[in-house]
Amino acid sequence: MSNIRGKAYAMNVITPMKRWKTPILKAAFKLFTAKFTQWELRKLSFIHFARWTTISADKMPRFDAMTKRESFGYDYLLFESNFNGSWNEYVDAFHSVLSFKLNLVWMWSENYPGSIPLVPFKTYIEHNQLHNDYYYMAYPGSTVTDVKNAVDVHRAFKSLARTLDSSDEAFAAAYRDFLHQVQNKLGSNGGPGPQMS
Amino acid sequence: MSNRYDSFYGYTGLFPIIDDLQAESHLDILREVLMSLPDGRGSLFSRTGLVHGARLFIIDDPVYNGRPSREEHFAYAYLALSITFDGELEALAERIAAVGAEAFTSVFSHCYGFGGASSAGAVLSYLKACQIETTFLYVDSDVDLPGTLSALAAQRRIADMIERAQGCGPAERKALVRDLAERLQLSPAPEPGDFVTSNDRDL
């Protein structure tokens, strides 16, 4: 099982859905493509990337050598996420911060209990979770916040370097501004991170 | 619908695993192959230089959720592949064929329809044949992979420079900033897959 790579955890959850519900769910996802609807996710700042995919029998790949044909009656909703922290912290955050939007997405799945109360929700996620056989992260030692901080520090430093040809006074002012911008973003990144369950 | 998020591509694929009568099933062999596949610097996805994250997992069968839902089964087991990367699928296929054909073949030769990975065209057509359109993709970043790795590597060196610059006058600080800016510009982007992102070794 390779759900964990450094500071990142990869979760997969697959749930059955009655076919007639799929177009409604897709319409809901269209609303969520507007970036202003994603502000809670950005504020949480612990999901590198996530995706939802709907799987239908008529869209499954098919090759000549395959003698059987898929005929499953449900559509399936596959959720995949890369986040920092433990499974419990992640599901707790979903339950407490994103419960309304999460319910809008998962309420179409069979026997979904809702994200509140917490225990049936966790039981449902656990029951439908598929574990990874292989997991790769390009920067496993860095959390989402580590990456954002490093990018901000790097950009600020490049701006500072563009003032090198200015007078000493102007450069001193630019250096002070630079320190103000980066002083809370210089924490180290790297390392395998804490052991997570 | 949403394979893309800004400059990122979210590929999702389901690859049917060969189901034939032999002493050891493709499913069992595939699980062993996946467990032994390198996952750090120099691994298949690292060498492409495009991939932020990737995973492979086997879907044997759907999970039964109890009554009143129906119990049902897939005709085949599927290998699910998800990749989040920079750019377009064509570019990724090109890189896989160029730097990862052997590893790619060791995995997908256990799946139906695989026609080899010796050319970008073969990899691309197989990835497309098994692609399931991603319904909704979310990426919490606006920086490509080289930019991300360079920033992670630069951050520590910038912090070191700030420490050294404490108590210095403007001229000395300028010299320290100029020196680091030149060094960072000359440093190649670090290789992906390491726990500690660094380009120190290249200086």
Explain what you see.
- The complex is a heterodimer of chains A (197) and B (203).
- Chain A starts with a strand and ends in a 15-residue tail after the last helix.
- In chain A, strands 1-2-4-3 form a four-stranded antiparallel β-sheet.
- Chain A has seven helices and five strands.
- Chain A has 197 residues and is of the alpha+beta class.
- Chain B has two domains: 126 residues, no CATH class; 58 residues, no CATH class.
- A four-stranded antiparallel β-sheet of chain B has the order 1-2-4-3.
- The longest helix of chain B is centred in the C-terminal third of the chain and has 21 residues.
- At the A-B interface, strand 2, helix 1, strand 3, strand 4 and strand 5 of A face strand 2, helix 1, helix 2, strand 3 and strand 4 of B.
- Strand 3 of chain A pairs antiparallel with strand 5 of chain B.
